[in-house]
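Recall the central idea of this unit: under ordinary conditions, the amino acid sequence of a chain determines the structure it adopts. In this exercise we apply that idea directly, starting from the sequence alone.
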Amino acid sequence: MVSSTEYGSHTWDLMLTVDHQQVEEEIPLQVTGDLHVGGLMLKLVEKIKIAQDWSDYAFWWEQKKCWLLKTHWTLDKYGVQADAKLIFTTQHKMLRLRLPNMKTVRLKVSFSSMVFRAVSDICKMLNIRRSEELSLLKQSEGTLKKKKKKDKNSKEPATEDVLNLCNSPVSSGLPANSGLYSKTMTPVYDPASGSPASSTITWFSDGSLAEQNCRILAFSHPTCSPEMLAEMYQPRTLADKAKLNAGWLDSSRSLMEQDVLEDDQLLLRFKYYTFFDLNPKYDAVRINQIYEQARWAILLEEIDCTEEEMLIFAALQARTRARYHVSKLSLSSETQDSTCEPEVDEVEAALSNLEVTLEGGNKSNILEDITDIPKLADNLKLVRPKKLALKAIKTYWFVFRDTSISYFKNKESAQGEPIEKLNLKGCEVVPDVNVAAKKFGIKLLIPVADGMNEVYLRCDNEDQYARWMAACVLASKGRTMADSSYQPEVQKILSFLQMKNWTTCSQAASEPENVDMKPECFVSPRYTKKFKSKQLTARILEAHQNVSQMSLVEAKLRFIQAWQSLPEFGLSYYVVRFKGSKKDDVLGVSYNRLIRIDMATGDPITTWRFSNMKQWNVNWEIRQVAIEFDQNVSIAFTCVGADCKIIHEYIGGYIFLSTRSKDHNETLDEELFHKLTGGQE
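Accordingly, the structure predicted from this sequence is:
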């Protein structure tokens, strides 16, 4: 027998808060250090005496900002003492998410799971495959200032149209359907109109999406106005663009651990710009959301483009709007038969699934690819930087072999030593094109020991430019023209040039005229100030001639493809201070490289490829990222205005995405993701 005195010495009072409308006061419990968390839950529920399902409840430790989810651990093992503030609360709570198409959905999300898992569950609710490409973003204070200022002056703030999805299985805290990535479990869409096929619409009634809600997420609703654009944050400098990426949540921690509260609003965005396995049959929602993220990036000038490119983007938007109005009346009557087509990666493959026939689209003989590496040889003009007068432009005989360009005085001297040989592996390739002016230039930024060597090439026509540009793009990634992606790359470039060259097509574009067309809705504010409304309308309709026969989904895919062709595509910017430097620079993070950029001029200084990276780590004490590359190259920097964990996660995330394979496309190696991105803080 144990005396009451001895018993009292081993027990202590723990005050518990219950997040329940029928329990208003704190509840004291007498506990011992060897009591496990599950036993504490049982004692608390027995004392509350409220009959309900408590399975979604768990303890949240307020001071330490952590969940006590390991119910077999004892209080001593967790370090819980009498002064601990434990809240017994639900793990799934309401959250508002602003999607890329600017629609807001309200749904229940796990506040105790890591963000990576929470995003996976959210994407299953929204029927978005490849959840690893997305993440959650908090808007930084800098990007909200303009909007707040506008709100103060507005007399009647607009009420937000929120799509409520809180009745789905995942929202209710039930396990999500693990088979969503399997094609037999995924709703099938009409590849042209994006409508869910009638045979698979039952998937939506079982989940959160009824057909009406599916259309909201899979279709674009262009209601953008100049007034709406004026109220939104528009970055003017690289430092402004860096603010857009400062708020990414840590994928290895839960929402509660990152101070996200119930019914807060976050942005759901595509964080990684590697869109794997796009297929119009299964990805109507995903394609539309990628298109919308690209569209808003163009309209808000988050990414730079030329006037010619802006008109192409405007024409494609006009096309999607016209097709949207048609699809509201009836399904598209265009023919398609993509059920038996093999899947190929990325946007070009998705266009192939829509039966967009491209020359050279057939795979070449594999044995020929291995044994015969093609080469290009032609007269090109070389433009020397810093000498932009006409006399600085000179014609040479260029030979492209493997991943290098050599140039000679003329064709006859090509058997001897070249004037210069340029290795393009790891270089930056920037298009410099104006179709109307017959200007087809390629700007090469080649990494050298002390920075970047700039080389400008001028081609004579579209075909020559497409062949050489495609070869340069592949060479920058370490691939030759023998690669099976060379011909599709050539055709992609030609297709983009054809869209720009709208004067070659004489067909009238009638559909946008039938829609109440407001050109200010299709271009960024910079161009609405530059042109009058009638001028913009005429130029957009002129550009629309080359896209007037596209289906709704094809127009979106072409828009995404054009977005991917922009020099700044896929770059996420951060302000950093490199070790040993006295001034801040901008670091651009892309899917395969890091770029150091001069903040004042915007010129790239140095490029480092992930393929040459040996290791990267973070010194958490001084918040410094250190990276080692081949050839004894090492860099170190601290982040200004953002957590260094964000860049660390970006690098690991892109490396993780590069491991994806069609053979293992139904499950994600979540453990590998956290190993590559989590760090050890």
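The mean pLDDT is 81.
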